[in-house]
């Protein structure tokens, strides 16, 4: 068992609980046990309720103690903060006896008592059963996305005093429906003393953002991550994005990770949380030729859009040479061992990248 006080590398490597291999039906203790077995540094539980479904304080303390004894870092989530998406999370409203803000406040308080202060959140869900672009709440026709962002900011302002009282941060994910530009603006409007960013390396590509440029944009506010690679393939609709193990897709990992490590506001090493695959490779469409989609991205520059097209072209060349899975293979069902292989390969590659970056920093230090 590892000592929690041992010297850590510049970044920790953890896993997201919702995509943890074969964790369906298992509790937090099982995931923590497996994380130690797999040599991970921590777990990013998507909900505080995953630690205790009833917010039982003794149970929460037990989970936190198990993690501490094993030398594991804990992060957790508190749900969606876009008021137009909260009906999809009735459990939080029920927790507050009809008051969603109260329910979320109880989650913040319970997490803080267990020593968990880095709290995940996002603004919407992806509707896989709906056609693009309406699979993203960004393109809802009943309420404009600008109204959703304003409502989200108002809700976060109301939650901010609770976060300040408990010394906690809500870390908004660069989720499929929101751009990194918009997440940064929300953090700056409400305040980085209570808000941070969960940088998802794969989701920014759904919004047609260059992942390196996005990493640099969000880095000053990144307090948590979801890391996974992507395959980008051309289709009649535009470009499809699929999830891949770190190092096997389109991303240049040293360029993505470096700004996060150099500029993150965290007082401790940032945790790179691997969000893997469990049921599919999560195909999402960038309908580049759709005027509605184009008009829905006022911050998108031609330079970033072309960078994404270039990544897709390079991946297509690899697939044509048989060096990477093609569209048919990416749409095929997962193999039984794939979720665990995804995790292990991602850990291996991330450690390789971190070692290389550390060596580069040492070389520069000696040169000075």
UniProtKB/TrEMBL annotation:
The UniProt record lists the Xylose isomerase-like TIM barrel domain at: 34-272
Q: Which Pfam families match?
A: AP_endonuc_2
Q: Which GO terms describe its molecular function?
A: isomerase activity
Q: Which InterPro entries match?
A: IolE/XylAMocC-like (IPR050312), Xyl_isomerase-like_sf (IPR036237), Xyl_isomerase-like_TIM-brl (IPR013022)
The protein's UniProt keywords, in alphabetical order, are: Carbohydrate metabolism, Isomerase
Q: Which domain of life is it from?
A: Bacteria
This chain belongs to which protein, by name? Sugar phosphate isomerase/epimerase
Species of origin reads Arthrobacter ginkgonis
């Amino acid at each position: 068992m590892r000592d929690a006080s041992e010297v850590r590398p510049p970044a920790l490597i953890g896993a997201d609980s919702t995509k943890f291999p074969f964790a369906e039906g298992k509790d937090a203790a099982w995931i923590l046990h497996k994380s130690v077995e797999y040599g991970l540094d921590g777990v990013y539980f998507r909900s505080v309720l995953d630690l205790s479904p009833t917010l039982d304080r003794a149970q929460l303390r037990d989970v936190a103690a198990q993690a501490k004894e094993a030398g594991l870092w804990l992060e957790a989530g508190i749900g969606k903060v876009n008021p137009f998406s909260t009906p999809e999370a009735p459990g939080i409203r029920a927790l507050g006896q009809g008051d969603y803000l109260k329910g979320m406040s109880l989650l913040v308080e319970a997490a803080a008592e267990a020593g968990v202060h880095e709290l995940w959140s996002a603004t919407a869900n992806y509707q896989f059963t709906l056609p693009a672009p309406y699979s993203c709440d960004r393109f809802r026709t009943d309420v404009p996305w600008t109204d959703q962002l304003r409502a989200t900011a108002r809700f976060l302002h109301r939650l901010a005093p609770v976060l300040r009282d408990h010394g906690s941060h809500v870390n908004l994910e660069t989720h499929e429906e929101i751009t990194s530009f918009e997440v940064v603006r929300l953090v700056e409007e409400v305040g980085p003393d209570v808000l941070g960013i969960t940088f998802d390396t794969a989701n920014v590509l759904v919004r047609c953002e260059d992942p390196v440029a996005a990493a640099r944009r969000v880095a000053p506010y990144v307090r948590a991550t979801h890391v996974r690679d992507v395959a980008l393939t051309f289709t009649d609709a535009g470009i499809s994005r699929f999830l891949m193990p770190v190092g096997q897709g389109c991303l240049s990992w040293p360029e993505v990770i470096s700004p996060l490590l150099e500029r993150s506001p965290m007082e401790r090493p940032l945790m790179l949380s691997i969000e893997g695959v469990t049921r599919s490779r999560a195909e999402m469409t960038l309908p580049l030729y759709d005027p509605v989609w184009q008009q829905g991205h006022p911050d998108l520059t031609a330079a970033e859009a072309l960078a994404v097209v270039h990544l897709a072209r390079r991946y297509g060349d690899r697939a044509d040479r048989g060096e990477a899975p093609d569209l048919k293979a990416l749409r095929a069902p997962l193999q039984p061992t794939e979720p665990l292989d995804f995790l292990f390969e991602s850990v291996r590659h991330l450690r390789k990248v971190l070692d290389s970056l550390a060596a580069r920093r040492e070389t520069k230090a000696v040169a000075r």
